[in-house]
Amino acid sequence: MDKKELKTRLSGVIAPLTTPFRDDESLDYDAVAENIEKYNATGLAGYMPLGSNGEFRSLVEGESLEMVSLIRRLTPASKALIVGAGRESAYSAAEFSKKAAALGADFVSVLTPFYFKDLLTDEGLFRYFVYIAEKSPVPVLIYNAPRFTGGLCLSPELIRRLGHHENIVGMKDTSENDISEYLKATEDLDFVVLAGTIKKFMSGLEAGAVGAVLACADYIPEECCRVYELFEAGKISEARGLYSQVAETSAKWSGKAGVPGVKKAMDHFGFRGGLPRLPLTEA
Fold this sequence. Notes:
Number of helices: 11
Structural class: alpha/beta
Number of strands: 8
Helix content: 40-55%
Largest sheet: 8 strands, parallel, barrel
Distance between the termini: 42 Å
Strand order of the largest sheet: 1-2-3-4-5-6-7-8
Mean pLDDT: 96
Low-confidence stretches: none
Strand content: 5-15%
Shape: globular
Order of helices and strands: HEHEHEHEHEHEHEHEHHH
């Protein structure tokens, strides 16, 4: 996949799909299907199940694979399917990546391992991602999310080094670093950067990010997509104005509430958020 094709495939707003649960803690597949059918009618560029918003660490593997299978069946080929495949070992992440690819994933997103954070080095992390990339049948996106990895943040220098691998094609950045640092570090590579938070959405686009993975796209997808469309059309002032409204809505519903807040917002805006799975509780 060359750089032009890669940018086209991942450009725009991607929804990090939630996983709805019922009162008895079981997974509500009907709710998943209903949400996807509604999302398909929007301008979303793709879906990212089994990430942080998908509570992937609360699922058993069978549920994860059933989610991928269901979402793939319902997702048109025009929308990218990026499946979360982060695990604490390179071997387990690679094995899950193979299973996700077999079910139709277009990409896998790999969260930085962190359980042995104090023992991890840049060399160990480099070898971790390269091992997965060399085993995965589909391209790999790095998920840089210090909030969920005990504060472990991948440096622009390490990202640049990883970006030279032909099967490591981009990253989702939710760190506190300036997103432009990652863009500058990889500007001459076949590598894309996606903003991973609403705070980085507009600044990311202005710095050269191809799009964003936004939790608020789970409940106000059309507004998020419109910000991107206005920006791409060169209507920067209008894009910034609408972005401010979207950011305000995001702060109100899911800012500090996290996944439970996203699910509550989905219920409010006509989607099916459902309950989180314990130990998370309803917002």
